[in-house]
Amino acid sequence: QSALTQPPSASGSxxxxxxxxCTGTSSDVGRYNYVSWYQQHPGKAPKLxxxxxxxxxxxxxxxxxxxxxxxxxxxxxxxxxxxDEANYYCTSFAGNDNYVxxxxxxxxxxx
Amino acid sequence: xxxxxxxxxxxxxxxxxxxxSCKASGYSLSDYYIHWVRQAPGQGLEWMGxxxxxxxxxxxxxxxxxxxxxxxxxxxxxxYIDLSSLRSDDTATYYCARGGSTGWRFxxxxxxxxxxxxx
Lengths: 111, 119
Hints:
A: three-stranded antiparallel beta sheet, 1 helix, B: mainly beta
């Protein structure tokens, strides 16, 4: 069982938006603004999409956006494209004992 | 071009140890944390720990304390992870990842190293 809870799957048609939730607790997601999101295509290493809840590394399209409310963070992919079909993972800092927690991952399918 | 290149696949017997290397290029290893994350076949990602390559200070996930050791050789810009007392459920792809300049994020990742534990 993963420490952060994500829906196992999500889907949308090309051009639509999909939002993935990542639910933790007041000891991790709710306490720290160190939530990150990663995209992983099959057989590939993960890629950083969002860090510190809302920040995008250079080179990541602005179709990807992050937010947080209470103990739940969210990743929104707008204008879905075929290449967005992948697994998405959230992480959160959880203090100086647990350190980093991952979500179980969400498989996004572009219909 | 900044990148991390990991050592090749390993097959180990239960009870043995394994060492995976992670060579940084395009930047100085000492300048950023190195994190290690693993992924069992068909499963999600699991954080194992991190090392400050400048000081050698490490922070390990509770689950792996006592079984994992992270080291580095800055003269060859390479980080290492050693996992001992291997079990079948340690079969996974092991990734190194460079930490960000701030906060807890993984800016980019190595290509992964598959470690198979089987008798």
